[in-house]
Amino acid sequence: MELKGIHHVSALTKNAEKNYHFYTSVMGMRLIKKTVNQDDISVYHLFYGDGIGTPGTEFTFFEIPNAGRAHPGTNSISETSLRVRTDAALDYWKNRFARFSINHGQITERFGRKVLPFTGFEEQRLLLVSDESEEGTVQGSPWVLSPVPPEYGIVGLGPVKLTVTDLEATSGILSSLLGFSKKGTFPSIFPGQRDIEVYETGGGGIGAEVHLEERKDLPKERLGRGGVHHVAFRVSDEQEMMQWINKVQAAGIPNSGFVDRFYFRSLYFREPNGILFELATDGPGFATDEELEHLGESLALPPFLEEKRPIIEAKLKPLKTKK
To answer: What digits encode the pLDDT tens for the residues 42-86?
Structure first.
């Protein structure tokens, strides 16, 4: 039993149409699945990723039309990073952000890697991180129809940053329960704060890291549009998932039990600071109910929701995603 890295990150958006434009037309990612939130079928759940929806490349969004703005704080997934192949790609993105009037910082170094911070259209805190000279989790494949040249395209998710009030409580879950190992530290950009700790799982590398930041000077986050709902970690298959369920239950942690999301199987639980973790299997995958070349073009529903399609489609605002 070993988690293979980050599976996906799920965030909130107020506007599915603007979200689709930003992540496909600006960020050059592929919409690999247009479906609904299985826990609230009245709203969209959009999945973006590489060209084929590889696990570890998936950035997903629940549409919440009345969502207020997020108020950053502790006990949160405070930053999501996206991988690019080279340091030179960061120069390309810095120029692209300027052209699209995307708020961004300077190219700097973090934990020995070149990074470029930027802000999404709903004030989402994002980071591009260079994979140059990096080993570990395998990169995805850029979308061939992307407006971004393939040599500069996004090839997956990088580290997620967790900001918590009690670092030891979360690090204990990462290490003792989930099998992460501490890889090192790097300085906080905020004076007087303790170093940020880096944990890795699986083969390591930037697609398998969690960066853990302790902040006792901030209020608790108020989740809203642009905020992150949960992070999911990769499990090989359903058989191993059952072992993880047994392990989490044996630890006495309240959890969802086995959840069939059709495209993957899941387990949900909260770590001690209240951040929602998901474990998700690599398969069956997003080409289960759509041809690979037509992913994301139509509203896809798992079989257990198909009979409700007329009701679901009547409530959803049309979202044109045909290539």
So the answer is: 999 999 999 999 999 999 999 999 999 999 999 999 999 999 999
How far apart, in whole angstroms, are the C-alpha atoms of residue 170 and residue 161? Answer: 12
- Find all residues with CB under 8 Å of 281, minimum gap 6, and list them: 234, 235, 236, 237, 238, 240, 241, 264, 265, 266
Measure the CA–CA gap between 12 and 227, rounded to whole angstroms. 6
Residue 295 lies in a domain: yes
Residue 323 has pLDDT above 70, yes or no: no
Q: Could you give the C-alpha distances from 177 to 84, 157, 276, 284, 318, in angstroms and in order?
A: 30, 23, 15, 25, 43
pTM: 0.97
In a domain, 256, yes or no: yes
Establish if 91 belongs to a structural domain.
yes
Q: Which pLDDT tens digit goes with each residue over 259-272?
A: 999 999 999 999 99
Q: What is the CATH number of the domain that holds 260?
A: 3.10.180.10
| Listed residue (56, 57, 45) closest to 12, CA to CA | 45
Task: Determine if residue 10 is left, alpha or beta; phi over 0 gives left, psi from -120 to 50 gives alpha, anything else beta.
Answer: beta
The whole domain housing 303 covers 6-315
Identity of the amino acid at 149: P
Burial class of residue 280 (count of CB atoms within 10 Å of its CB; 0-12, 13-18, 19+)? buried
Q: State how far the Cα of 286 lies from the Cα of 52, in Å rounded to an integer.
A: 8
Closest CA to 280 of 8, 2, 1: 8
